[in-house]
Write a structure and sequence with these properties.
heterodimer; A: 476 residues; mainly alpha; B: 505 residues; two-stranded antiparallel ribbon; 3% strand
C-alpha cells in the first residue's frame, strides 16, 4: 500500500479515527458538549479529506472502488450526518445523564454508509450495511422515555436482520453461479453463468434486490417504514431517511451496473413491478396520514419508486447512458436535500416526538421562516418548478421518454398527481388559523432557524440555477 | 430587458407590500396599487417608442426579430434552456389586460380583506407576475415554470382568504391545474426529445420547436397533452368542474384575477402553442375541439340557469363564454381569432365587474344566495345601475365589447361550418336568459325582508371609479374596436400564414 492509496482511503480513515477519539474521550471525561464538537470536527475533516482524495485515482484493492461518484456521494452523506448532528444537539438536553455514546453511534453509522457507497465487493457491501444498520438500531432506541422508539428499533432490527439474511443468501446463489464475489467479476462471468444455470443467477439477483428493497422501503417491503419514522427521534429519522437510504441506493445502482444485472429482462420486469407498486401504493397510503413523519415515510417509498424507474431505464438508453447516471445522481441529491429541509423543520417545530399535523396549524403566522422552508420542501417533493424536486422530475421524465417506457411514465405521472394532494395538505394546514393549543408564545428556535433556512436556500438554488450541479454531476 | 424589468417590478412590489404591513396596516394596498400603476406606466412608455408597434408591423412566428420585443439569455445550457421573453400583438394586449385588472383587483380587496392584508397584496402581485410571465415566455421550459408558479400565490389567496369551503376549493383548483400541467410537461419534454432526434441539440425555444417534424401519431398525442392542460385552465367542458368552486370560494379580488386573467392563459396557450406547434394534428382535432366548445357554451348556460348562488351563476356563465373562445380558436381564421382575443378582453372586464358586485353584495348582506336578495335596486341605485350595465354587456348587447367578440367568433365559425355557428348562437339566447334572471332575482322585484332590515351602503367613490373605468373600456371596445383589432392582427397575420390549418367544410 502506497501513500496515494492511503490518501484515497483517507475519508474512511478519518471517520474511524473520529470514532476512536470519541471512545477515548468517553474514558477520560464524559461530556455531551465535547463529544458533539469532536464529532463535528471529525466530519468536517472527513469532508476535507474527501476533497483531497478526489485528486487521486488509485486502485485500492478488490473491496472498495473509490471513484468520483462514490466520493461525491460520500460528501453528500457526510453533509447529512452534519445536519443530523445539528439537530441532535438539543435532543438529550433535558435528560439528566450524559449521552455521548449517541455521537459514537452516529459516526460509526456514517462510516458504514461511506463504505457502502464505495463498495465494489459483496463483502464490503455487507460490512458497510451492517455497520450502518447496527449503529442505527441503537440510535433509534436511544430516548429512554416512551415505548415508540423501542418498538421502532425492534421492528427495524428484526426486518433488517431478515434483509441481511436474504442478501447473504442471494450472494451465495450468485457465487454459486458465477464463482466470483466482486461486482465486476460477477458481471463479467454472469453471462456464461446464466447460460449454465439461469435460475441460480436470477434467483440470486432477485433475492439480493429484495433484501435491498427492505432498506429502501420499496413496496412490498415497506411495512416498517412509517412506524420507524414515527417512533425514532426526529434527528434519527432524518439520518435514516437521507443517509441510510441514500447510501443503500447508491450501492444498489453500483451492484446493478457493475454486476450487469440489467441484462436480465425478467429481473428488470420484476423491478418494474416493484417500481410501479411503490409509486402507487406509497402515494396512496400517504394520502390519509395524520402524522407528518408517517406521511414523509410513505412519500419516501414513492420517491424511491421514481428513482427505480431511472435504473430500469438505463439499459434502454443506448447512446444517452450518461443522462441516466446524471438523472439518478440529480434526483438523489434533490431528494436528500429536500428531505433534510422538511425533517429539519419537523424537528424544530414538532419537537422530538410530536409530529401530528395539528402541531403545524398556522405555522405561517407563528414561524414564517420555518413554515416557508417546509412549504418549499413540500413543493419540491411535489415537483413544482424552481425547486430541486422539479429538476429531478425533469430529468426522470426526459429519461423515461428517451427509454420509451410508457407504463412507468404513466405511473410516474399518476403517482405525482396523487402526491400533490397530500403535500398540499401540509401547506394548507400551515396556512390555517393557529389552533388553540398553538396560540401561546412561539418556541424560541435560535440557531436552529438558520439551519432550516440554509437547506431551503439549497433546495431553491438547485431548482432555479441547476447548471453548476449539472456540470458537477456530469463529470462523475 | 423591459419585459424582465416588468416582472421584477411586480415581484419586488410584492415584497414591499409584505414588508410595509409592519409600518401601517392600510399601506400594503396603496403600495400594491402604486406598483401596478408604475408597471403600467413603465410598459406604456417603453412600448410607445417602438416603431414596429406604431407601424403595426406584422410579426411572424418564425422570426423573433420581427416581434415587438425579444429578449434571450442562457439559463441552463446543459439542456438548451434560455430565459426567452418576447412580445407580439397578442401578448401585449394580454399584458395590458392583466395589469388593468390587477389594479381592479387591488381595488376589490380594499376593504374586503381585513386579515393580513400585506400578505394578500403580495400574493396578488406575485400572481400577476406569474401571469405576465406566462404571456411573455417563449422558452417552453420557462413558460411551464410560470404556468405552474402562478398557481401557488393564487392557491394561497383562495386557501387563506376564501369563504366557508375554501380548503376544498383551493385544493381542487390546484390539483386540477397541476395534474393537467404534468401532461403538458411530458408533452413539452417529448417535443424537445423528438426535435433533438432530428437536430441533435436540446432546445426549448418556441421559434426552434415550431419547425419540428414528427409523425402523425406522435403529434396527435403531444397536441393532446397541451390541449388538455390549456382546456382545464380555460376551462372547457368537461374539465370545468374546478371553476365554480374556486370562483365561489375565492375572495373577491381572487375571483377577479381568476376569471379576468387566469382563464385567459388557457386561451392564450391554445392560440400560441397548442395549434401552431401541431398544425396537422390540430386540424384533425378541430371538429372535436369546436364541439367541446359548443357543449361548453350550452352546458355552462344551462348550469348557470339553475344556480341560486350569485357568484356560482357568474362562474358558470364564464364556462359558457369560454366555450366561445374554444370555438373561435379552432375555427382558426382571422375573424374567429380576432373574436376570441376580443372575447378574452371583454369577458375579462365584464366578469371582473360582476364578481366585484357579488363581492360588494356579500360584504353588505353576508350572503351570496339570490333567494335572500331582491329589490336591491331601491336600496342601492348606483350598484343596481352598474350591475345592469355589466349584465347586459355579458349577454352581448350591441355597442359593448362582448357583442363585438361573440359576433366576430360566430362570423368566423360560419365560414367553416354553418351548423356549428348556429349551435353556438344558441348560447346568446340562453345567455340572455340567465343574465336577466341574475338581474331580476337580485336587484329587481319585491324587496326581501332580509335586505329590508339593514340600511345598505351604496357604491362609494372608490367602487364607482373602478366600475366606470371598466364601463369605459367595454364601451370603447364595443364602439371602436379597431385599434385592438389592428394590434392583434399584427400577430395573427403571421400566425395564420405559417400555420394554415385549411379547415373547410
Amino acid at each position: 500500500m502506497n501513500s496515494d492509496q492511503l490518501l484515497v482511503l483517507s475519508p474512511i480513515i478519518s471517520l474511524s479515527l473520529t470514532a476512536l477519539i470519541l471512545m477515548i474521550q468517553a474514558s477520560i471525561k464524559r461530556d455531551h458538549r465535547i463529544a458533539w464538537w469532536i464529532s463535528t470536527l471529525g466530519l468536517l475533516t472527513t469532508l476535507l479529506s474527501i476533497y483531497s482524495a478526489s485528486n487521486f485515482s488509485q486502485d485500492v484493492g478488490p473491496l472498495l472502488k473509490v471513484d468520483a461518484w462514490g466520493l461525491w456521494f460520500s460528501a453528500l452523506l457526510i453533509f447529512c450526518a452534519l445536519i443530523t448532528l445539528a439537530l441532535s444537539r438539543d435532543i438529550f438536553h433535558t435528560q439528566a445523564d450524559t449521552k455521548e455514546e449517541y455521537y459514537l453511534l452516529l459516526i460509526l453509522s456514517t462510516l458504514g454508509a461511506v463504505v457502502l457507497v464505495q463498495a465494489a465487493h459483496t463483502a464490503s457491501l455487507l460490512l458497510g450495511m451492517e455497520l450502518m444498520g447496527i449503529a442505527l438500531y441503537a440510535m433509534i432506541a436511544f430516548p429512554k422515555s416512551g415505548d415508540l422508539p423501542l418498538e421502532a428499533a425492534v421492528k427495524y432490527l428484526v426486518l433488517s436482520a431478515c434483509a441481511s439474511a436474504m442478501l447473504l443468501f442471494g450472494f451465495a446463489l450468485l457465487y454459486g453461479a458465477t464463482g466470483d464475489l466482486s461486482f465486476a467479476g460477477m458481471g463479467a462471468k454472469a453471462a456464461s453463468g446464466y447460460l449454465n444455470n439461469p435460475l441460480l443467477v436470477l434467483a440470486g439477483a432477485a433475492i439480493v434486490l429484495a433484501g435491498m428493497g427492505f432498506k429502501l422501503s420499496l413496496v412490498p417491503f415497506h411495512m416498517w417504514t412509517p412506524d420507524v419514522y414515527q417512533g425514532a427521534p426526529t434527528a434519527v429519522t432524518t439520518f435514516l431517511a437521507t443517509l441510510s437510504k441514500g447510501a443503500m441506493f447508491v450501492a444498489m445502482v453500483r451492484l446493478i451496473l457493475d454486476g450487469q444485472l440489467y441484462r436480465y429482462e425478467s429481473l428488470m420486469n420484476a423491478l418494474s413491478v416493484v417500481a410501479v407498486a411503490s409509486m402507487l401504493v406509497g402515494n396512496w397510503l400517504a394520502l390519509r396520514q395524520q402524522q407528518i413523519k408517517r406521511l414523509i415515510a410513505y412519500s419516501s417509498t414513492a420517491h424511491f419508486g421514481y428513482l427505480l424507474v431511472a435504473i430500469i431505464a438505463l439499459p434502454h438508453l443506448g447512446d444517452t447512458q450518461q443522462l441516466g447516471r446524471a438523472a439518478i445522481s440529480f434526483y438523489l441529491v434533490a431528494y436528500i436535500v429536500t428531505t433534510l429541509a422538511a425533517l429539519t423543520v419537523i424537528a424544530n417545530v414538532g419537537g422530538e416526538e410530536d409530529s401530528d399535523m395539528q402541531a403545524f396549524d398556522g405555522l405561517f403566522w407563528r414561524h414564517p421562516a420555518q413554515a416557508i422552508t417546509l412549504a418549499v420542501a413540500m413543493l419540491s417533493f411535489a415537483g413544482i418548478p424552481l425547486t430541486a424536486g422539479f429538476m429531478g422530475k425533469f430529468y426522470l421524465i426526459t429519461l423515461t421518454l428517451n427509454a420509451q417506457l410508457w407504463l412507468l411514465l404513466g405511473t410516474l405521472m399518476i403517482g405525482s398527481a396523487i402526491a400533490i394532494y397530500y403535500y398540499l395538505r401540509v401547506i394548507f394546514t400551515m396556512s390555517a388559523e393557529p389552533h388553540q393549543l398553538n396560540k401561546g408564545s412561539p418556541t424560541v428556535l435560535g440557531w436552529r432557524n438558520p439551519v432550516a433556512l440554509l437547506l431551503m436556500l439549497a433546495v431553491l438554488a438547485i431548482g432555479s440555477w441547476p447548471q453548476p450541479l449539472i456540470d458537477l454531476i456530469g463529470r462523475l | 430587458m423591459v419585459m424582465l424589468n416588468l416582472l421584477l417590478i411586480l415581484l419586488a412590489g410584492g415584497f414591499l407590500a409584505l414588508l410595509c404591513e409592519r409600518i401601517d396596516k392600510s399601506l400594503p394596498r396603496i403600495v400594491a396599487l402604486a406598483v401596478i400603476i408604475a408597471a403600467l406606466i413603465y410598459l406604456i412608455t417603453s412600448i410607445s417608442g417602438l416603431s414596429a408597434l406604431n407601424a403595426l408591423q406584422a410579426s411572424t412566428p418564425s422570426d423573433p426579430s420581427s416581434w415587438f420585443m425579444h429578449f434571450k439569455t442562457p439559463w441552463i445550457p446543459a439542456f438548451g434552456i434560455h430565459i426567452e421573453l418576447a412580445l407580439d400583438g397578442i401578448s401585449l394586449l394580454m399584458i395590458l389586460l392583466t395589469l388593468l385588472l390587477g389594479a381592479v383587483a387591488v381595488s376589490a380587496s380594499w376593504t374586503d380583506i381585513q386579515y393580513r392584508q400585506g400578505v394578500f397584496e403580495a400574493n396578488l402581485l406575485w400572481t400577476l407576475a406569474g401571469v405576465l410571465g406566462v404571456f411573455m415566455a417563449l422558452d417552453l421550459f420557462l413558460f411551464f415554470l410560470f404556468w405552474e408558479i402562478m398557481l401557488i400565490p393564487m392557491y394561497f389567496m383562495i386557501a387563506i382568504w376564501g369563504h366557508e369551503n375554501r380548503g376544498y376549493a383551493a385544493m381542487k383548483f390546484f390539483i386540477f391545474t397541476q395534474a393537467s400541467g404534468l401532461l403538458m410537461l411530458v408533452a413539452i419534454l417529448a417535443l424537445v426529445a423528438v426535435n433533438r432526434e432530428v437536430t441533435g441539440v436540446y432546445t426549448f425555444s418556441y421559434f426552434d420547436l415550431l419547425q419540428t417534424k414528427m409523425d402523425e401519431t406522435t403529434a396527435y398525442w403531444l397536441m393532446l397533452g397541451f390541449f388538455i392542460s390549456f382546456v382545464v385552465k380555460l376551462p372547457g367542458f368537461p374539465f370545468h368542474t374546478w371553476l365554480p368552486d374556486a370562483h365561489t370560494q375565492a375572495p373577491t379580488a381572487g375571483s377577479v384575477i381568476l376569471a379576468g386573467i387566469l382563464l385567459k392563459t388557457g386561451a392564450y396557450g391554445l392560440i400560441r402553442f397548442a395549434v401552431p406547434l401541431f398544425p396537422d394534428a390540430s386540424m384533425h382535432f378541430a371538429p372535436v375541439a369546436m364541439l367541446l366548445g359548443i357543449v361548453g357554451i350550452i352546458y355552462g348556460a344551462i348550469a348557470a340557469l339553475s344556480q341560486t348562488d350569485f357568484k356560482r351563476l357568474v362562474a358558470y356563465s364564464s364556462v359558457s363564454h369560454m366555450g366561445f373562445i374554444l370555438l373561435g380558436v379552432y375555427a382558426w381564421n382571422t375573424l374567429a381569432l380576432q373574436g376570441a382575443i376580443m372575447q378574452m378582453i371583454a369577458h375579462g372586464f365584464s366578469t371582473a365587474a360582476l364578481f366585484m358586485i357579488a363581492g360588494a353584495l356579500q360584504e353588505r348582506l353576508h350572503t351570496r344566495d339570490m333567494r335572500e336578495m331582491g329589490g336591491l335596486w331601491q336600496q342601492m341605485p348606483r350598484m343596481g345601475a352598474v350591475a345592469m350595465f355589466f349584465i347586459i354587456a355579458a349577454l352581448g348587447l350591441p355597442g359593448l365589447g362582448n357583442f363585438v367578440a361573440e359576433f366576430l367568433i360566430l362570423l368566423g365559425v360560419f365560414q367553416i361550418n354553418e351548423w356549428m355557428a348556429v349551435a353556438g348562437a344558441m348560447g346568446l339566447i340562453t345567455g340572455a336568459v340567465y343574465s336577466l334572471i341574475l338581474m331580476q332575482r337580485s336587484f329587481q322585484g319585491q324587496p326581501n325582508t332580509h335586505s329590508d332590515k339593514l340600511p345598505l351602503a351604496d357604491f362609494g367613490p372608490r367602487e364607482m371609479l373602478t366600475m366606470s373605468l371598466m364601463m369605459i373600456a367595454l364601451i370603447a371596445l364595443g364602439l371602436y374596436p379597431q385599434p385592438i383589432l389592428d394590434v392583434s392582427q399584427t400577430a395573427l397575420g403571421g400566425l395564420l400564414d405559417s400555420t394554415a390549418l385549411g379547415i373547410t367544410q
